[in-house]
Amino acid sequence: MTRISLDYLGDGQGIAAPDRVLGVIALSGSSPADLSIGLPAVGPDSGGLREVWRADEDVTRRGATGNLRYARAGALLFGVLEQTLPNGGTAEAAKAAYDAMLDLIAAEGCPHLVRVSNYIADITRDENGEERYRAFNAGRQAAFESRNRRSTQAPAACGLGCGGDALRLFFLASETPGHNIENPRQISAFDYPKQYGETPPLFARATVAAGMLLISGTSSIVGHETVHIGDVAAQADETLRNLDALLAEARRLNVQVDRQALRLKVYLRHARDQPAVASRLYDAGLSAPVAWLQSDVCRPELDVEMEAHAPS
Ligand code: 3EB
């Protein structure tokens, strides 16, 4: 099995073992990268931050097709894509992006998508009377549906806001299927009721693949409802309960990960909330997050979302 690892680099730090690097994502700052998300960094050390996806085997091929760029190492395929989002054309643009990704992974013999990170410009914007995120969901679903992909096979994901006018996404696909994990405290996103949009979000709460537990964007949602509206500290605590629930489910798959081993990325709607959330994480005994970023979370009433990875 080809395994992946993740590194986090500040500005000016060199990238080790470049032959094994599948992709470099600039979460914040303007250091060279395969994809720049350009989120404002938050907190005391708010310089640029890059996330480096590395395999334990050399990359044997790098390629590009249209607006998609990819790297192949062993049984894994990593790709990045930037798709302009015309005002009012988000569903079509999201479908085009997902079509390109799904066509590539099929052609490359890596049909099992195990992780997609979606950064959507102006995610809460109103487009033809509909929130842009909902139009994104419609396009994503149309691409999956046209290939007869079942919603239970959707990968771990995140759906967050960013600046500019594009959908920026990166993904990891594999020759072999990952194992999806759902959260018993939450309704699966693909089963959300229609109050969150005609088309549900297609993602798994977590996926185990390539030697990694990949936890999706997780927030203060119980059942399908947002809880603790207006109380960011309580939202952080609820999010940690959801992360613990996912770790307990992972144990049932014989994947033992302690909460201290989680490498957390924390997205805050308001930068000013960083000290309050940091103190909740510290009190819960978590390791310091690898990233603090400002981003619009997809439900307007959510103030914090956390994403996590850990070796499995
Ligand atoms: C949620 O739980 C919060 O649309 O891919 C989290 C992770 C969220 C992924 C996505 C959205 C997505 O519904 C939002």
- Helix and strand content put the structural class at alpha+beta
Q: Measured on Cα atoms, how large is the radius of gyration? A: 18 Å
Task: Figure out the total of helices.
Answer: 4
Q: Number of DSSP strands?
A: 20
Net shape:
globular
Ligands bound to this protein structure = 3-(2-carboxyethyl)benzoic acid
What percentage of amino acids are in beta strands? 35-45%
Distance between the termini: 13 Å
- The level of helicity is 10-25%
* Largest sheet: number of strands, sense, barrel closure: 6 strands, mixed
| Low-pLDDT sequence parts | none
Labels describing this entry:
globular, alpha+beta, six-stranded mixed beta sheet, 4 helices, binds 3-(2-carboxyethyl)benzoic acid, 312 residues, 20 strands
How would you describe what is shown here?
- The chain is of the alpha+beta class and 312 residues long.
- The chain has four helices and 20 strands.
- Helix 1 (90-107) packs parallel to helix 2 and helix 3 (232-252) packs across helix 4.
- The chain starts with a strand and ends with a strand.
- The model has no long low-confidence stretch (mean pLDDT 97).
- The site of 3-(2-carboxyethyl)benzoic acid has 12 residues, from strand 11 and strand 15.
